Amino acid sequence: MPINYYIFLSVALFCIGVAGVLTRRNAIIVFMCIELMLNAVNLLLVAFSKMHHLALAATDPNAGINGQLFVFFIMVVAAAEVSVGLAIIAMLYRNTHSVDINFLNRLKH
Amino acid sequence: MNLTQILFWFLSALALFSAIMVVISKNPVHSVLWLIVVFFTISGHYILLNAQFLAIVNLIVYAGAIMVLFLFVIMLMNLNAETEPQKNKWLKMAGVIGGGALLLVLVAALKDADTRNQIAQTGVGDIGLIHNLGLVLFKEYVIPFEISSVLFLSAMVGAVVIGKKE
Fold it and tell me: Could B39 and A39 be called an inter-chain contact, meaning their C-beta atoms sit closer than 8 Å?
C-alpha cells in the first residue's frame, strides 16, 4: 500500500484523539483518547518501518527493524503509564466522588 | 482491487468509525468497547504489514490487559451515561474545531510531501517476525529493555503508593 494512505489514516486517528481530549470531561475517556493517539503513532511507525525495509532490504536485511522495536518500547511505557494514571483517577474518585477532569484544577493550589 | 486493498480499506473505515464512537459515546463502558474494536483493527493493520509479533502484543497488552483495567475501574466506580459530566456546547464545538484544524494543517502539510512514490511493504518481509525482533532486542537494545523493567517496578510502586488509603 502507498505510505500516504497510512500517514493520512494515522493523522486522522490522532486528530480524533485530540478532539476527544478537548471535548470530553470524564477523566477516563480523556485517558482513553490519549491511548488512541499513542496507537495512531504506533501504526505510523510500523508502516514507516516496512517502507524503510522495502527501500533498503538489498543492502541491510534488518533495515527498518528499529521502528518496530520502538513500537514495542512505546507499548511498554504505555502500560506503565496506564497503571499510574488509573491509580491517580481512582484516588481522584475516592476524594471527590466524581471523575470530572475539572476537579484536577485544585492541584495548582 | 486485490484482497490486501479490500482489507486495508475495510480496517481503515472500521478504525475511524470506532475511534469516532469512542469520543461520542455517552456511556463510558461503550467507549471502552469501541476502543477495543479500534485496537483489533490496528492489530489487523499490523498483520497486513506482516508485523506479527506487534499484532499479538497489541492484542495481549492493549485489548487484553489495559482495556480490562479500564473496564474494571469504570465498573468499580459505577459510571454510566447519567453520571457523565458534560461540557457546555461551545467548549465542545471549540474542541471539535481545534481537532479539525489540526487535521487540516497536517493533511495540507503532508499531501505534497515527497512520499508519494513510497510503498509500505504488505504481506511479505520478515523483520516483523519474533525471531528477528528478538535477536535485535537482546543484542542492540538490551540496556533499554532492562531499564524498562526498572520503569515497570517504579510504576508498580507508584500505583500502590497512590492507590493505598493514607
Answer: yes
The interface predicted TM-score of the complex, written ipTM, equals 0.90
Residue A35 in contact with residue B119, Cβ under 8 Å? no
pTM for the full predicted model? 0.90
From the list A4, A6, A50, the residue facing B116 with the nearest CB is: A4
Q: What's the CATH code of the domain at B63? A: 1.20.120.1200
Contact between A68 and B132 under an 8 Å Cβ cutoff? The reply is no
pLDDT in tens, B105-156: 999 988 887 776 777 777 777 887 888 889 989 999 999 999 999 999 999 9
| Residue contact B151–A11, C-beta within 8 A | no
Mutate to test the interface with B, among A22, A44, A74 (most CBs of B within 10 A): A22
A31 within 8 A of A86, measured Cβ to Cβ: yes
Q: Which CATH number fits domain A3-108: 1.10.3720.10, 3.40.50.620, 3.40.50.12160, 1.10.287.3510?
A: 1.10.287.3510
